[in-house]
UniProtKB/TrEMBL annotation:
Domain CoA carboxyltransferase C-terminal: 38-292
Gene Ontology CC: one annotated term: acetyl-CoA carboxylase complex
UniProt KW Transferase keyword: yes
Pathway(s) of this molecule: Lipid metabolism; malonyl-CoA biosynthesis; malonyl-CoA from acetyl-CoA: step 1/1
Keyword set includes Ubl conjugation: no
Cited function: Component of the acetyl coenzyme A carboxylase (ACC) complex. First, biotin carboxylase catalyzes the carboxylation of biotin on its carrier protein (BCCP) and then the CO(2) group is transferred by the carboxyltransferase to acetyl-CoA to form malonyl-CoA.
Protein name from the UniProt record: Acetyl-coenzyme A carboxylase carboxyl transferase subunit alpha
InterPro entries reported for this sequence: Acetyl_CoA_COase_a_su, ClpP/crotonase-like_dom_sf, COA_CT_C
Organism in which the protein naturally occurs: Teichococcus oryzae
Catalytic reaction list: N(6)-carboxybiotinyl-L-lysyl-[protein] + acetyl-CoA = N(6)-biotinyl-L-lysyl-[protein] + malonyl-CoA
Enzyme class: transferase
Subunit and partners: Acetyl-CoA carboxylase is a heterohexamer composed of biotin carboxyl carrier protein (AccB), biotin carboxylase (AccC) and two subunits each of ACCase subunit alpha (AccA) and ACCase subunit beta (AccD).
GO-annotated molecular function: acetyl-CoA carboxylase activity; ATP binding; carboxyl- or carbamoyltransferase activity
Length: 318
């Protein structure tokens, strides 16, 4: 059953009527093909009109849609012969961060990502995509491993942010994130990161300080969640829509500010309506971004990456 967001209620009603009419036909009732066709056209136009004018808060809801393709979906569809690698070699394995080696369109690569899960059991297993220090230490280990073996890195980021619990802070959450970002900036291989859903705070940057940063059309990327921002500034999480607008967290805002390098179009109605088409579009854009980087040596890649992030500060956009 399709999950509809709050702002999609008129669409849900229309599609509900269409499904009801189709069931009537299937049950041997009268032919309602003409009526179904009219309602389908109406639903298509309503979907186009709705998604042509999404607010930042509505885009946030789309980015969090439970049926949106997750990190492991991209890995399964895009990476051949994927071999998962686990553990930080210091404390434990964190299932919120997934990683391993495989081939992307014939090119050997290291893959990283944050996985939210697709049902209750997998969401609990992956801690809803919120990593603890051992997750970021695992990411750092794999990034450094990729550097030693000359493997380009692909990351797929979808996290509300790092796990905020006391135990994570006690185990050095901030240091682990900082070291992961440092590893991203210092690795002498091509690195392409894609924000596929939420890109929340340092928990996202830890896997996305890359040569090329891509975002899906309805993904978000921000220093804090709209709810967190609203709670701090207004002491009221209900102000989240106002915060979302102020944060400039959409792919379109960040592209205009030159903080990301490309926006991947989504199927009409969001990635959850056609996951296969979304995965293919991401794969094409990732390859188009990665291929030119393969010709550059490690020193050049590191210098360009460093300059890229320093320029963001010089230009005054961050």
């Amino acid at each position: 059953m399709r999950h509809f967001l709050d702002f999609e209620k008129p669409l849900a009603e229309l599609e509900g009527k269409i499904e009801e009419l189709r069931r009537t036909t299937d049950a041997g009732g009268i032919d309602v093909a003409e009526e179904v066709g009219k309602l389908s056209d109406k639903a298509e136009k309503l979907l186009q009109a709705t998604y042509a004018k999404l607010t930042p808060w509505q885009k946030t809801q789309v980015a969090r849609h439970p049926d949106r393709p997750k990190c492991l979906t991209y890995v399964e569809e895009l990476i051949e012969g994927f071999i998962p690698l686990a553990g930080d070699r210091a404390f434990a394995d964190d299932a919120a961060v997934v990683g391993g080696m495989g081939r992307f369109r014939g090119q050997a690569v290291m893959v990283l990502g944050t996985e939210k899960g697709t049902d209750t059991d997998s969401r609990i297993k992956h801690n809803f995509g919120s990593a603890k220090p051992e997750g970021y230490r695992k990411a750092r280990r794999l990034i450094e491993l990729a550097g030693r073996f000359g493997l380009p890195i692909l990351s797929f980021v979808d996290t509300a942010g790092a796990f905020p619990g006391v135990e994570a802070e006690a185990r050095g959450q901030a240091e682990a994130i900082a070291r992961s970002i440092e590893a991203c900036l210092d690795v002498p291989v091509p690195f392409v990161a894609t924000i596929i859903g939420e890109g929340g705070s340092g928990g996202a940057i830890a896997l996305a300080a890359a040569d090329r940063v891509l975002m899906l059309e309805h993904s978000i990327y921000s220093v804090i969640s709209p709810e967190g921002c609203a709670s701090i500034l207004w002491r009221d999480a209900a102000q989240a829509p106002t915060a979302a607008d102020a944060l400039k967290l959409t792919a379109q805002d960040l592209s205009r500010l030159s903080l990301v390098d490309g926006v991947v179009p989504e199927p009409l109605g969001g990635a959850h309506r056609d996951p296969a088409a979304t995965v293919k579009a991401v794969g094409d854009k990732v390859w188009a971004s990665l291929e030119p980087l393969l010709a550059l040596d490690g020193g050049t890649l590191k210098a360009h990456r460093r300059e890229k992030f320093l320029e963001m500060g010089r230009s005054g956009v961050v």
